[in-house]
Amino acid sequence: MIEQIAPFITEQFSDLVGIPRDIVKIELFHVEPITNSPLTVEILMFQREQEIHDAVASMIHTKLCDCGYPNPHIFFVILSPSLYYKEGKPLNEIPASISSYST
């Protein structure tokens, strides 16, 4: 089911965050819950304005609920350009014209 909504999530996420669609990655990790755990969505991205994070979380929450996944837990892991490496160099040291990632 997640695979079916991935194109929608990719398009909406890209539009909300302002990044190219081809750099949005969606991965499904198979885990074995030890305790009663809700569906969890983990979003790794660079810091944005709070309103953007709120809009992304709301969009994903609504889409998952519409598809029969009630009450998903959504959280962000904030990436740092100085600790994100591309071509062996921190992203904040790569000229913006070369880097396809928007910080």
Description:
This protein has 103 residues and is α+β, with helices and mostly antiparallel strands. The chain is 32% helix and 17% strand. The chain is built from 2 helices and 4 strands. The protein has helices spanning 2-17, 50-66; strands at residues 40-46, 73-79, 85-86, 89-90. A two-stranded parallel sheet has the order 1-2. Strands 3-4 form a two-stranded antiparallel ribbon. The longest helix is centred in the middle third of the chain and has 17 residues, at 50-66. The mean pLDDT is 90.
Task: Describe the secondary-structure layout.
Layout: H1 2-17, E1 40-46, H2 50-66, E2 73-79, E3 85-86, E4 89-90
Parallel strand pairs: 1-2
Antiparallel strand pairs: 3-4
| Number of DSSP helical runs | 2
Runs in which pLDDT lies below 50 for 5 or more consecutive residues are none
Helix content: 25-40%
Largest sheet: 2 strands, parallel
Spatial order of strands in the largest sheet: 1-2
Shape: globular
Instruction: Compute the average pLDDT.
Output: 90
Strand content: 15-25%
Radius of gyration: 15 Å
Give the N-to-C terminal Cα separation. 31 Å
- Helical/strand content category: alpha+beta
Q: Give helix and strand order, one letter per element, not per position.
A: HEHEEE
Total strands: the figure is 4
